Structures
1.
Amino acid sequence: MQKVVIELTMSLDGFIAGPNISVSEPMGNKGQRLHEWFFNSKTETDEALLTEIVENSGAVITGARTYTTAIDDAWGGQSPFIVPPFVVCHHPPAKKVDGFSYVQGIKEALEHARKSAGEKNIWIMGGANIIQQYLQLKLFDEMHIHIAPVLFTEGTRLFDLIGKDRIELNKLKTIDTPAATHIYYEVLK
């Protein structure tokens, strides 16, 4: 059964990117530490989690800022995804890359992603503004948060602008590896 899954890494104090995000530093000047669990410090367990994310996803939704800052440096000028990626943006980006679709809003992105994903999950990977909109409207089924063992103290916070309505979650599982604590929640509807 298809699910909408918010999947991302954040610091222990709730930041998904460090300060000073730019094309030359897509995760900001503190961001490198966030993703050690799937780069330099990856264990067999981390690798299995990454494989699960990819194998269960049928489409990916990301924001324009994430796309713009990552497309050249982090993604090498091409899509890193093996499934259709949708970029939510008010205006098409200056640099368009084959394989990406550019859509106007989160509902439109979700509609296209549902059609593309078939029975597989839709992976919402960010950035903060896009995820906050999905949280506000409760348009997700699960949230998988990978918590890096670092305190940023500044940067882009995930849970700042999510509205005032309570979102009830049920913890599905927790997996600890040296470079992250992986927590999986489902939304109680």
2.
Amino acid sequence: MKQVAILGYHKIGHPPDKGWDTWYYIPSDVFLEQLQFLSSNGWQVIDSKTMLDGMSEPAILPERSAVLTFDDGYRSMREVAVPLLAEFGYPSILFVPTAFVGGLNEFDAGDEPDEPICDWDDLRALAASGVAIQSHGVSHRRFSELDPNELEREIRESKSSLESQIGGTVELFSFPYGDHGLTPSATSEKLRRAGYRAACLYGGGVQLLPAEQPYGLVRIAMGPDTDLNSELAAKEEGK
């Protein structure tokens, strides 16, 4: 059995001029330090396909593997994060709520500053640069608040929109707010039938592979004060 550190990010950079700072913003210099930590300590950042294949075949994975995921599709991904990722040659995964493409993060109204979400041209450019564009649903609503038909729409329509606009195959889902519904087993079955191979929660530490619950993968919640040394040392001790 192996373990993979799936890191869950949101915003890289600073708040807009009329905004305010929150835990979900990671300054670019702090983000750079986190990437440097992975590089200097022998962590190999793997892409989405390698992670998905490794869920059933852990032997193909490197000894120390990490996955970089970003929720919500913020434009800072293209403007700030990707240039820094490129310095290390690191692949990444961007989870996008399709109803907000080209708009603002209205789902965070009052809690987070207004931030632009990538438009379709941004997302196509990111995909061309090696970022895997994957699903974060349609409306960024909590799954526990949805009826079965709404849940089905979130799963299928988001996948269809991303595949038709960007190309490629959408096989990963990230639950908004880490909420996988009132009946996770039913949600998992809907995801499986729609063609997803795995889905991510938010928080929970490192992920064991092979995954007993591929539609409930845990991630390390990343903020400006997240101590990667401590988080990943705990992983090493758990071997």
3.
Amino acid sequence: MTTTAQQIGDQPPAHPVEITVNRKPVTVPDHEVIGLAIKEAAIAQGVKIEPDFQLSEELGHHQTRIIGDSDLVHVHQGSTFVAVGPDDNS
């Protein structure tokens, strides 16, 4: 008999999700990630941002919400985020 991760109480396997950060595709490891993990994944995948950039989620209908580094975010395929530098006044 083989032992699975579920049987020994480990975390269930991750399900990568493709999101968008600054109009670039980024894959995050699972449906629940923290803000810093989104920025780190974006940086690792070539998006030209820095860890201190402010992250916000585009909610639609011209609405956004600020995502802090430790905020847990539930993402889905196609979730869209914008990261801007601390000196960007746009």
